[in-house]
Design brief:
Layout: H1 2-26, H2 35-45, H3 58-67, H4 73-92, H5 96-116, H6 119-140, H7 144-162
Length: 164
């Protein structure tokens, strides 16, 4: 009789644990990971229209480029460097899709900066743009390692065009 009571107690504890685990995890709604694209879409919805501070996401920064076409060259170069650095960081982590997003924004800023540059600085920015294009191609093919190499080369050329 004693064994039956212990057996029932053991089963009730196991059942309670299973129900608790099930209720805690399986009842919750599953939300699939959508990457930074979902965050970028959400950030675009919350962007105030009267300010030009778009540091929230890659897509928001892209919108800022289109909204302010007459930014000084230094701002575009700095933004290109910032996004290229972010792309390299994500590339080292193997996040090819996020690398591609940042590389695209860096490319737009680099192209805007290239328009106002001249001489050796323009040549370096042009080389940086070529490497950003290659990084985007490799990132879209999910080759994070190759894309990261091209982003690092682009960073070198962007820094050279700035004078760092």
């Amino acid at each position: 009789m004693m064994k039956i009571k212990m057996y029932k107690k053991f089963l009730s504890v196991i059942l309670l644990a299973v129900v608790t685990l099930f209720a805690g995890t399986a009842v919750g709604k599953y939300i699939p990971y959508k990457g930074s694209a979902a965050a970028a879409e959400k950030a675009i919805e919350t962007i105030p229209t009267e300010t030009t501070d778009y540091a929230g996401s890659a897509a928001a920064a892209e919108k800022a480029i289109e909204a302010t076409s007459k930014k000084p060259t230094e701002d575009h170069s700095a933004q290109a460097l910032k996004h290229a650095t972010a792309a390299a960081t994500h590339g080292k982590a193997g996040h090819a899709s996020v690398l591609t997003e940042h590389a695209k924004v860096a490319l737009k800023h680099a192209q805007a900066a290239e328009q106002a540059l001249s001489g050796e600085a323009r040549e370096h920015m042009t080389k940086g743009i070529e490497h950003l294009n290659e990084a985007i191609k490799h990132g879209e093919m999910d080759h994070a390692d190759m894309a990261t190499e091209h982003v690092n080369e682009a960073i070198t050329h962007i820094k050279a065009s700035i004078g760092e």
